Amino acid sequence: MKTFLATLAVLLLFLQVIPGSTEKCWNFRGSCRDECLKNERFYVFCVSGKLCCLKPKDQPHLPQHTKN
């Protein structure tokens, strides 16, 4: 039982320390970052004030305004 608790404690510690476990945004499709990666685009701001970076395929398509 002590081994199990020790293993669990180490795993929980690693979850807090491992880089890349970032805040998610836009229905869990994006990641909050200070700068977007090369293959990502900024869409909205996260609650933390960071950029919500999405891959182009996950960005919603906004309708184009047309002049009448």
From TrEMBL:
Keywords: Antibiotic, Antimicrobial, Defensin, Disulfide bond, Secreted, Signal. One of its GO terms (biological process) is innate immune response. Residues 24-53 form the Beta-defensin domain. Transmembrane segments: none annotated. It is found in: Secreted. InterPro entries: Beta-defensin, Beta_defensin_dom. Pfam families: Defensin_beta_2. Residues 1-20 form the signal peptide. It comes from the Eukaryota. GO terms for cellular component: extracellular region. Has antibacterial activity. Belongs to the beta-defensin family. This is Beta-defensin. It comes from Pongo abelii.
